[in-house]
Specification:
Shape: globular
Distance between the termini: 22 Å
Number of strands: 11
Structural class: alpha/beta
Strand content: 15-25%
Largest sheet: 7 strands, mixed
Amino acid sequence: MLNLKAVNIIKTTKLYEENRLLRNLTVVTAYFDIGTFPKGSFSEMQGQKQYEKWMIVYKYMQNPVLFYTDSEKYADLFRKIRNTNGSKTKVIIISRENLWAFKIKPKIAEIYSKPGYPVHYPATYMPEYTCVMHSKLEIVKKAIETKIFASKYYCWLDIGYFRYLVDRRKKFYLEVPGDFNDSKIGFTKVYDRDLEKDSAESILLTGNVWIGGGLILGKPDTLNLFETHFEKKVEYYLSQGLMNDDQRIFYAMYTATERQKHPINIDVQLYVLDKKKNIIPGRNYSKRDDKWFHLGYLMYNELE
């Protein structure tokens, strides 16, 4: 039988380990209400109701979280959701007009309005959607600059990333994978692509995807440098009369041709779902085998 001293040591050790893990990674997310929009086709619509439901997952997330929005309504809602994790939560209201990603909206709208420009819902259908997608890294950079939560790593996480865990209602934390290379940016690889042959123009016009933009992981300095590269590439493609969402920009900027024209000294570390290896017995949560969310589920750990 354990004595009281031994029990206290175990509790203290467990608490220290938990705090170490939480200090290790800060989660950054945001929500800008752009109304209801078609996803994939007009038969599938997304909007406020879905996002409000998906936000509930953040009630159970134990990592420090910075939440950005331009809405008092959603600022209040997120505070209520995180009320038991108030000390690990910072809600920041930010104006769209102060974000580079929204300042380029007129240029994006002009391209999307050109006769014959390919329509992919919602990526090249709603300029506001593209602006929101392009704001991710910019917002992460702002979060890092605040130094509110001093952590070794930061990650962008879409507000609806863990949508399939809404009803699970279990406390959890996200932990950086043990094999993560600190000099790289972590992504989930969704499809195999030929980066040696593919061109930026074909990617931005066809809407093909290589890596998912729902979770972007890295160290502060690396993420800041990556954001600078991303912003320059967006501006370049705008000047060429081409545009799409963040996922297509990531794909385009890492093709061999684009890297030769505009060298990027940051590589990406890709995590790929292998159903034979990655589906862990006892942790087969709903949609854990969805290839779009593999890195997030790999980082996901429930607390007893």
